[in-house]
């Protein structure tokens, strides 16, 4: 499984949770160079993929990947730009880890080929914007 988004809550310890926190507080978001590759999956898309795997009768370890990772830098830039808050983004303010995945792309399995995974760069910023709007209504 890869990193999920969607639903009502975002984990404060995860990258997107930290992004949301900075945006809610209108505070700078400090991050590394952001070269890490990540696959973000809407939870509903993974439910569909898991259903396809179950219906196929397959068993054993099966990865759920859409095979279209993005760098955290590009994702952060897209999110902050879409919300008109690019000035809060401080790329390179934190050290990068040598243990991060900067190059490996996971393959998509044909068992769930019919699933149309949502575009990370289109949908994560929209989900965060919607989450922030709901938070401001409270």
Tell me about this structure.
The protein is of the alpha/beta class. The protein has one domain (3-137): 3-Layer(aba) Sandwich (Rossmann fold), CATH 3.40.50.720. The chain has helices at residues 15-25, 43-56, 72-82, 120-137, and strands at 3-5, 29-31, 37-38, 40-42, 70-71, 89-91. The strands form 3 sheets. The chain has a two-stranded parallel ribbon with strand order 1-4. A two-stranded parallel sheet has the order 2-6. It has a two-stranded antiparallel ribbon with strand order 3-5. The longest helix has 18 residues, at 120-137. The chain starts with a strand and ends with a helix. The mean pLDDT is 94.
What's the quick description here?
The chain contains 4 helices and 6 strands.
Instruction: Indicate the radius of gyration in whole angstroms.
Output: 16 Å
SSE class = alpha/beta
**Total of DSSP H or I helical runs spanning 4+ residues:** 4
Separation of termini?
32 Å
Key words describing this protein structure:
two-stranded parallel ribbon; two-stranded parallel sheet; 138 residues; Rossmann fold; alpha/beta; globular
SSE diagram, text form:
Layout: E1 3-5, H1 15-25, E2 29-31, E3 37-38, E4 40-42, H2 43-56, E5 70-71, H3 72-82, E6 89-91, H4 120-137
Parallel strand pairs: 1-4, 2-6
Antiparallel strand pairs: 3-5
Helix pairs in contact: 1-4, 3-4
């Amino acid at each position: 499984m890869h990193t999920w988004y969607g639903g009502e809550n975002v984990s404060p310890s995860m990258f997107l949770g930290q992004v949301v926190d900075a945006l809610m507080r209108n505070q700078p978001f400090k991050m590394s160079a952001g070269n890490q590759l990540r696959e973000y999956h809407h939870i509903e898309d993974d439910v569909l993929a898991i259903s396809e795997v179950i219906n196929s009768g397959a068993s054993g370890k099966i990865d759920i990947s859409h095979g279209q990772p993005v760098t955290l830098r590009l994702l952060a830039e897209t999110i902050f730009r879409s919300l008109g808050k690019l000035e809060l983004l401080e790329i390179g303010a934190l050290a990068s880890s040598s243990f991060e995945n900067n190059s490996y792309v996971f393959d998509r399995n044909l068992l769930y080929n019919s699933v149309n995974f949502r575009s990370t760069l289109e949908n994560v910023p929209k989900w965060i914007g919607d989450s922030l709007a709901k938070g401001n209504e409270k």
